[in-house]
Amino acid sequence: xxxxxxxxxxxxxxxxxxxxxxxxxxxxxxxxxxxxxxxxxxxxxxxxxxxxxxxxxxxxxxxxxxxxxxxxxxxxxxxxxxxxxxxxxxxxxxxxxxxxxxxxxxxxxxxxxxxxxxxxxxxxxxxxxxxxxxxxxxxxxxxxxxxxxxxxxxxxxxxxxxxxxxxxxxxxxxxxxxxxxxxxxxxxxxxxxxxxxxxxxxxxxxxxxxxxxxxxxxxxxxxxxxxxxxxxxxxxxxxxxxxxxxxxxxxxxxxxxxxxxxxxxxx
Length: 267
Hints:
Layout: H1 3-17, H2 26-40, H3 45-54, H4 59-68, H5 80-94, E1 99-104, H6 111-124, E2 129-136, H7 139-147, E3 149-151, H8 160-166, E4 167-171, E5 176-180, H9 182-185, E6 188-192, E7 206-210, H10 220-233, E8 234-241, E9 255-259, E10 262-265
């Protein structure tokens, strides 16, 4: 992929997703775009770009963004965040709160929202009004999340107690599958959402927003717009959780630090 074609892809991807691709990513973009080209029988990057631009249904840009998106995740990733969630849920429950709304803003293949659901059930039990919204720009990963079936390797970081309590073990010809039990799955709604295009169709108020390891792909303009919208949706005293590798220095207007990578909304 030459530089001119790469820049055309880069502009399109930024406009449609907010993902900011730096210089030198030609090979990466070429390889990921190649998956869609092979599926369609197209052998030229320019021809495929034209195909995306002329697709009136809008489906091909979704397929392109699915191919471009990075989806690295696992259960209980950055575990101190879930320790904090369990603690604050117990405090809210003890204070008399009965309704809880949580948003997993970049849910990928579902490990984050399912971990959130497990932690909530462990912290406050199941007799509560709890809803978890899980969103991602990729329809491919959302479909995997909704299925809720994970190979044994994906479960290696999870304590045996959680596997036994919240998953059904299903034998397959070459491996075991662990399928999320209905009690856990029913807590979560999955929706496609582009984080670069606020305002979002949610009313709030939300108690906690997990927006982890996604803003690193956005430039400052997109990050500011996203943070402003998250603040709108959070209740006063609600929490925003970001990835440990992410910094909100100079961007966290209306928030103060509660602990590393956890921010509380202030008036």
